[in-house]
């Protein structure tokens, strides 16, 4: 395992494919996911011939440091986990891909370090999330433990066995702190208009963030939007072949 230091935290990352001669592509998946999901869901096999594929587990996820206080999960700090990995690896500039929570982290990174971006891939996101402690499904499920978290994912998408096993082992206390923090984040709606790097945006036709993602393309010069017919927010995660082809078309 490889780790970069970000203050007191160690941030887990891995080079999952490709070699140093290829352009770097940095991957940040969604809430509660692992960098190994990029492998198990078929992304890396489709990307490694075109990119040096680097995946990051931001704080609270996988093997990275996992604070239990909401104040440790503001978007600037989470974005700094990604730049800490880039610094550690000597990557000055990269295409950075985020999905769902990962897209919000990448937007925060873009607002602070636009010079580090050769391009952006952003999928399935909202600019702000409403989180009510008393009836939030994510918080309620995390309170029941890892097996409940794994079962919830199994209801919304097909999870490969290794991914399902990892979901059952998540740090529920850290993820609960992150979820509560996410509900307090300021809206990221002003960031797209400031972006200068080329950007690929995508969503499923039935994704809850579809309209936000689709509308964002009008604010970002040099961007394009693609959509997968009939799929939900989670089903899009399983459809690696389609979006990997679009990413290679845009950035390889």
UniProtKB/TrEMBL annotation:
<dbReference type="InterPro" id="IPR029058">
    <property type="entry name" value="AB_hydrolase_fold"/>
</dbReference>
<feature type="domain" description="AB hydrolase-1">
    <location>
        <begin position="23"/>
        <end position="125"/>
    </location>
</feature>
<dbReference type="InterPro" id="IPR050266">
    <property type="entry name" value="AB_hydrolase_sf"/>
</dbReference>
<dbReference type="Pfam" id="PF00561">
    <property type="entry name" value="Abhydrolase_1"/>
</dbReference>
<protein>
    <recommendedName>
        <fullName>AB hydrolase-1 domain-containing protein</fullName>
    </recommendedName>
</protein>
<dbReference type="GO" id="GO:0016020">
    <property type="term" value="C:membrane"/>
</dbReference>
<dbReference type="GO" id="GO:0047372">
    <property type="term" value="F:monoacylglycerol lipase activity"/>
</dbReference>
<dbReference type="GO" id="GO:0046464">
    <property type="term" value="P:acylglycerol catabolic process"/>
</dbReference>
<dbReference type="InterPro" id="IPR000073">
    <property type="entry name" value="AB_hydrolase_1"/>
</dbReference>
């Amino acid at each position: 395992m490889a780790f970069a230091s970000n203050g007191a935290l160690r941030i887990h990352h891995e080079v999952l494919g490709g070699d140093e001669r290829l352009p770097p592509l940095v991957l940040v998946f969604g809430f509660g996911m692992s960098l190994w999901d990029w492998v198990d869901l078929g992304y890396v096999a489709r990307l490694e011939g075109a990119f040096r594929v680097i995946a990051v587990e931001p704080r609270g996820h996988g093997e990275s440091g996992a604070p239990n206080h909401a104040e440790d999960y503001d978007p600037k700090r989470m974005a700094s986990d990604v730049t800490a990995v880039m610094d550690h690896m000597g990557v000055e500039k990269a295409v950075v891909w985020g999905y769902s929570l990962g897209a919000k982290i990448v937007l925060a990174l873009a607002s602070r370090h636009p010079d580090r971006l050769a391009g952006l891939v952003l999928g399935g996101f909202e600019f702000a999330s409403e989180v009510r402690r008393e009836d939030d499904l994510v918080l309620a499920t995390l309170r029941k433990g890892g097996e409940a978290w794994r079962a919830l994912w199994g209801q919304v998408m097909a999870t490969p066995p290794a991914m399902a096993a990892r979901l059952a082992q998540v740090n529920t206390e850290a993820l609960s702190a992150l979820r509560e923090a996410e509900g307090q984040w300021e809206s990221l709606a002003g960031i797209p208009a400031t972006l200068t790097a080329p950007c690929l945006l995508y969503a499923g036709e039935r994704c809850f963030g579809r309209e936000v993602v689709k509308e964002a393309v009008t604010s970002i010069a040099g961007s394009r939007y693609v959509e997968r017919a009939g799929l939900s927010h989670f089903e899009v995660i399983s459809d690696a072949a389609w979006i990997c082809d679009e990413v290679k078309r845009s950035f390889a």
